[in-house]
Write a structure and sequence with these properties.
Keywords: Signal
CATH class of the largest domain: Mainly Beta
Strand order of the largest sheet: 1-4-14-9-8-7
Region (Disordered): 191-219
Number of strands: 32
Protein name: Copper amine oxidase-like N-terminal domain-containing protein
Organism: Sporotomaculum syntrophicum
Helix content: 10-25%
InterPro entries: Cu_amine_oxidase-like_N, Mao_N_sf
Structural class: mainly beta
Shape: elongated
């Protein structure tokens, strides 16, 4: 009997240890931004395993000293700016740039914390907020919280930008934690926003043939300059032409289920003489051309010169691991002339 009791105790212990391990904090991007400016920083995802949160739990988020949460006009946010907004798909608390989002679903799973008034935000200082849980979520479902940092005043000499997250003992928030939100001093601009997709399906997405998923470092491809570029694709064809020369593709352009024409990102980027950098650990692609662009492959969110956008249709990863984006993205971000010959389904890109 003693053995059975001990086995039961160990079973319960390991069950809760395993459950606790499921909670996580993930910074979906780590942008490079300019100091002494109001810029977008990384979006923070907090996943809390079912049964961990309870009514009254709090979590504190603190930006570095001399940083501050800002409104669209770059004024400092106050408590009155943290307004709850409701929709059928999500609840947001904040302004148009900085807000806490509680999606109805995340990764196809119901969010236990979704509901009006279930989470409140209190601004403690110009660089610190407190989240408070006002309900005990369903223990059979995980809770998901996204913190969007779209307008943050960045101190002039910040260097690496670290957010401190902490909680009182006994709180269900998976804190303490210190996470890098970005850095200053570089010309790169990086992206992120939240995802309503299943992250696990795309964590291993390989963006190009030179970037194996198992490599932990960023890879860069340099291209040489040619004055004029003319690229031709045909929908469904594994061949393209670049300035009249035939080249082989390992994944063909196509029209997706939403009716968007999807084209291979890396091939076009390199053909247009822009530098491409793949960050495998973050599932992000940096594109350095006339503008600094970063695409989050998981979400379709895009930063273009420090401004956040959303692709008209999310990126899609096609075997053997090629990222495809809507043709419209190419025309709008690369200032390219696009011609579509409907009868033969031929796309011509000129720049």
């Amino acid at each position: 009997m003693k053995k059975l009791v001990l086995l039961g105790v160990f079973a319960v212990f390991f069950m809760f240890a395993s459950t606790a391990a499921a909670s996580e904090i993930k910074v979906l991007t780590q942008p490079a931004v300019k100091g002494d400016s109001v810029s977008s920083l990384g979006t923070v995802l907090i996943k809390i395993t079912g049964g961990a949160l309870k009514n009254g739990d709090i979590g504190l988020f603190r930006l570095p000293e001399d940083f501050r949460f800002c409104n669209e006009d770059e004024s400092t946010m106050t408590q009155g700016d943290w307004v709850e907004q409701l929709s059928n798909e999500a609840i947001m608390v904040g302004n148009a740039k900085n807000y806490v989002k509680i999606p109805r679903k995340y990764g196809g799973k119901e969010n236990a914390l979704y509901g009006q008034g279930n989470l409140s935000v209190t601004q403690l200082d110009e660089n610190e907020i407190m989240l408070k849980v006002n309900t005990t979520p369903d223990i059979s479902q995980d809770s998901y919280i996204l913190l969007y940092l779209g307008a943050i005043y960045i101190d002039e000499d910040a260097g690496e930008i670290i957010m401190s997250m902490r909680a009182p003992s006994g709180s269900g928030f998976p804190f303490p934690s210190t996470d890098k939100l970005g850095r200053t001093g570089g010309a790169k601009v990086k992206v992120n926003a939240d995802t309503e997709q299943d992250d696990a399906q795309k964590d291993q997405a390989d963006v190009d043939k030179t970037a194996p998923a198992e490599k932990p470092v960023a890879e860069e491809v340099e291209t040489t300059g040619i004055d004029k570029k003319i690229i031709k694709f045909a929908i469904g064809s594994m061949q393209a032409t670049l300035n009249g020369s035939t080249v082989s593709l390992d994944a063909a352009p196509y029209i997706n289920s939403s009716g968007f024409t999807m084209v291979p990102l890396r091939f076009i980027a390199e053909a247009l003489n822009v530098r491409v950098e793949w960050l495998p650990n973050l599932s992000q692609v940096n594109i350095y051309g006339d503008s600094n662009i970063l695409i989050n492959v998981e979400t379709g969110a895009v930063y273009i010169d420090n401004s956040i956008h959303q692709l008209p249709s999310p990126p899609e990863v096609i075997a053997p691991g090629r990222v495809f984006v809507p043709l419209r993205f190419v025309s709008e971000t690369q200032h390219a002339e696009i011609d579509y010959e409907k009868n033969h389904k031929v796309i011509t890109i000129k720049r």
